Amino acid sequence: MAEAILRDHLHRRGVAARVHSAGTLAWRGGASEGARDALRERGLDAGSHRSRRLDADLVGGADLVLAMTRTHAWAVARHATGADRRTFLPAELARLGGLVGPPTPGETVAEWAGRVAARRTDPRVPGRAGEEVADPAGEPLAVYRATAARLDVDLARVADLLVASPSPDPPDG
After folding, report:
1. What is the three-state SS of 110-162?
2. Residue 173: predicted pLDDT
3. CB of 24 closer than 8 Å to CB of 68
4. Are 89 and 110 in contact (CB under 8 A)?
């Protein structure tokens, strides 16, 4: 869900970014029915989504990595040197990025992420426990909806920081 929601926020702000998702488990197939339904209700389509496993090439080529939990963030960090300085929980990136401000002119997203990561109280610990996003797999549609709503708020803030402009239409909730 995060991939579709972030891609939509960036697209609405005129940013043509490459947004990909990958998991830490060997999961095959497409998005779950709950994820597809929750996204469809938001006007987003995850029908063509295919799961893939996180690997060193994906992590190494990413300027910024968003993980849903601390465990996921630590798994990302094991794939590439320095990945911990580019990996955040969405709410953590919104919070710390708000303290740092948007990327400066000429600054890459990876450089900006490093400045944001430097604001962590403990560089070994990504985010706060309350900033983790639980996987709604197997839960009722209401849980998928709540997860999508939370991601929408956090990822809208991230997109605003990345483009350094206010959201064209603030998210509900």
Report:
1. HHHHHHHHCCCCCCCCCCCHHHCCCCCCCCCHHHHHHHHHHHHHHHHHHHHHH
2. 38
3. no
4. no
pLDDT tens for 119-140 read 999 998 999 999 999 999 889 9
- Say how far apart CA 162 and CA 131 lie, in whole Å: 19
Is the backbone of residue 49 left (phi > 0), alpha (psi -120 to 50) or beta? beta
The rounded mean pLDDT for the chain is 87
> What is the model's pLDDT at position 152?
96
Give the per-residue pLDDT at 50.
66
Which residue's entry shows tokens 């799961």? 51
What string of DSSP letters covers 58-88? HHHT-S-EE-SSHHHHHHHHTTSTTGGGSEE
User: For the chain, which residues make up each domain, given as ranges?
Assistant: 2-163
* pLDDT single digits (tens) 13-51: 998 788 888 777 666 666 778 888 999 999 998 766 667
CATH topology for 2-163 is Rossmann fold (3.40.50)
Residue 111 CB neighbour total at 10 angstroms: 15
